[in-house]
Amino acid sequence: MSKAEHGEETRDVTLVEAVNMALHWEMARDENVVVLGEDIATNGGVFRTTVGLKEAFGFKRVMDTPLAENLIAGTAIGMATQGLKPVAEFQFMGFIYAGVEQIISHAARMRNRTRGRLHCPIVFRAPFGGGIHAPEHHSESTEALFAHIPGLRVVIPSSPQRAYGLLLAAIRNPDPVIFLEPKRIYRAVTQTVANNGEALPLDTCFTLREGDDVTLITWGACVLETLQAADQLAEQGVSCEVIDVATVSPLDRDTLLCSVAKTGRAVIIHEACRNGGVGAEVAASIAEGAFLDLQAPVVRVTGYDTVMPYYRNEQYYLPQVEDITRAVEQVIAL
């Protein structure tokens, strides 16, 4: 199908609308793409990311499932091994754990187990992170769990443009992708997106801002506060390079190391708790690959090693702009 036949358009959309656009595009382009999950068909999903899909493609390709995450994951794996390209939605990341056995023991290992005879082109989508005044199981950031698993890609968009392009790439990828959508910026940011079916590269960091004094490394919703911090620091004469990791596994170490070699300093920002977080892997990679370039120790700005608190205390848990600027001032002073 050509772009003209597909109805290409460019418009200002939110992240949630960009996800919906990508799903529409790819389902129209490839009849093997199917979507399944809880309340995703008739109701369009809890965040309305799948609105209009059932009407456009029918109930055979857009399927409401029971409230059974293990079933969702297992069904998607079966579909994928038989030629379909399922996009399976978990309503919240905190609900994904019932499907973890299927994801880790089967989806991630299928290509290796069958010596390439079978593979699993699946996207497991889940809204994740805090900031919407929800209970703790609706506000978790446990991307490090999946980043540790060989055979899985873990992709986290931070803007409408990257949500659109990365989701297209994830659906077209021949192996399973955990696609985590930062829900507190679902509707917080609007961006012009060309609905042209062009994917963005996976396994690649995006340099959002060039700088010379310090490298700020982040992903997901924290990109918003990191860019705001970089603006404030620029007023103080501090030049920040801002990198959106985007694919937290496998990690694009080359981009990170090249940036740190230039700036000599690094601050890592993520919402997840500190212990065993992806930020620790980033810091270790910098220590291994750019140690002699460092002019100060690597600093992390993270959530706390505790369960995400209820909404009154969310702002104390989530990294704030002032936390980032304080960390940068600390490493600049060394």
UniProtKB/TrEMBL annotation:
For this UniProt entry, the molecular function terms from Gene Ontology, in alphabetical order, are: oxidoreductase activity
Enumerate the cofactors the protein uses.
Answer: thiamine diphosphate
Describe the location of the Transketolase-like pyrimidine-binding domain by residue ranges. Answer: 13-188
Please give the Gene3D superfamilies that the UniProt record associates with this protein: 3.40.50.920, 3.40.50.970
InterPro entries found in the cross-reference section? THDP-binding, Transketo_C/PFOR_II, Transketolase-like_Pyr-bd, Transketolase_C
Q: What Pfam families does UniProt report for this protein, alphabetically?
A: Transket_pyr, Transketolase_C
In terms of SMART domains, this protein maps to: Transket_pyr
Q: Which UniProt keywords apply?
A: Oxidoreductase, Thiamine pyrophosphate
- Protein purpose: The branched-chain alpha-keto dehydrogenase complex catalyzes the overall conversion of alpha-keto acids to acyl-CoA and CO(2). It contains multiple copies of three enzymatic components: branched-chain alpha-keto acid decarboxylase (E1), lipoamide acyltransferase (E2) and lipoamide dehydrogenase (E3).
The name on file for this protein is 2-oxoisovalerate dehydrogenase subunit beta
